[in-house]
Structure formats: C-alpha cells, structure tokens
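Sequence in, structure out.
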Amino acid sequence: MFSGETNTRSDSQNRRMAGCLAFVGGFVNSSGFVLIGSFTSHVTGNVGRLANDAATGQFSAALTALGLVMAFFLGAFCASSIIESRFAGGATSRSYALALAVEASLLFLFTWVSCRSPLLPQAEQAAVLCAAMGMQNALVTRLSGAVVRTTHLTGVITDLGIECARWFRYSRRVLSEATNLRLVLGRRGAERPLPAKIWLLGTIAVTFLFGAVAGALSALHLQQLAMLLAALGVASCSLYARFNERLARTSREQSRFDRE
C-alpha cells in the first residue's frame, strides 16, 4: 500500500491507500473546522480569504490566510524532501513511513498545544493542521503518480462527473447495438471506460465523506482530543509502511542467499 510509485502500483494498492488517507483528510478537515473554525485540508478557501481580506483592507487577516497557505506549502515541501532524501531511503517504504510519522507528529502536536494552551491563537493551530495536510497531499501525489488526492474533493468530483459521462455514452452505444437505433451522436467512438478508475474515485469520495462526519462528531464529543484519533490512524499507516520495508528487505536478502 505504501510501496512503489506510479506504474508499479496496482489498482487495489491505490484504493486501499486512498481509502485510509481520504478518511483522515475528511476527519482532520471537519474536526479542525469544529475546533478552530478553519478548513485546513485544502488551499483554495484560504487563497479566497487572502484575496478578500486584502481587497477590503484587512491586511492582518490577509497575512493570516497567507500563513495558512505557506504552512500547507511547507508541509508539501517537507514530505517531498523526505521522499527524495537518500538518508530516508529515497522513494521507498522507509521514506513514506518517515513522512507519515512526521504528519502524525504534527497532529499529536496540535492536540497537545490545543489542550495545554487553549488561548493560543487559532491561526497558529490551523497552520499546524495545514502543514500536516500538505505533507499528506504531497506524499500521496508522489506515491500514486498524481492519480490519487486525499485532502480535498474538487478534482475527485470533477473526475467522477467525467467518468460517469463516459459510462453514459458507452451504455448508449451498447443499447444502440442491441436495438439498431442511433443513440450515440458524433464520429467519436464510445469506448468502454476503465471500471478501476471510477471505483478509485468513488472510494475517495465516500471515505472522505465518512471521515468528515466522524471528525465532526468526534470534535463535538471529545473536543481537542478528537484529533488524537486521526493522529493514531496516520501513525498506524506509518508503522504499516515500516513493516512493509522490513518485509521487503528480508525478502531481498533471502533471494540473494538462495542465489548464492
């Protein structure tokens, strides 16, 4: 699930990874909004706030929004640097485990800071969550070859609309062949779309939604401690990736021993 990049990955690996981390993305986004009044898993809204505040002369608020955008950027930069680093193993399960461990640490840090220092400005607390989500988005993008996104749904819903339109056209072609009626217009053929893609997109949309609901409910009942659930979830993914790295290393050593 957290090994191999782009064309070496299977559809099931992408679906499992997308399901786990999209749930986390939805959870952090909604629980963060309940706790500190800010969405933190995407940049678009904060850029809109930045532009609006700057246009209305609220420069302090505009700087706050810019800080959240930069926190997301720095999180993405940090995750990609870890994956590129030879020290961390360079695009292996070990580097993904380390990046996930740092993300989990940021979520734990948010919980600790928000519980110990409730008077700390919410902008600083939001920046921690933005950095965590930036790390997750960069990690998943690198790991899947930009096929999977787990911290926002705009592109996912757009792609679902595109795929559903393709299936609609293809179903009309099938019906046309069965009834001898011309139901598909235009010269372009109605090719059968790939089922795996719509399953992947549907997995992301559904798990993000469930994560968002779970995050909001947890924040209402557990307050700041709710983010511990997300932190533990990401930490579990990190341990899983690390276990995969050790298993793969043992397998390579065994294969080398057998050849010798």
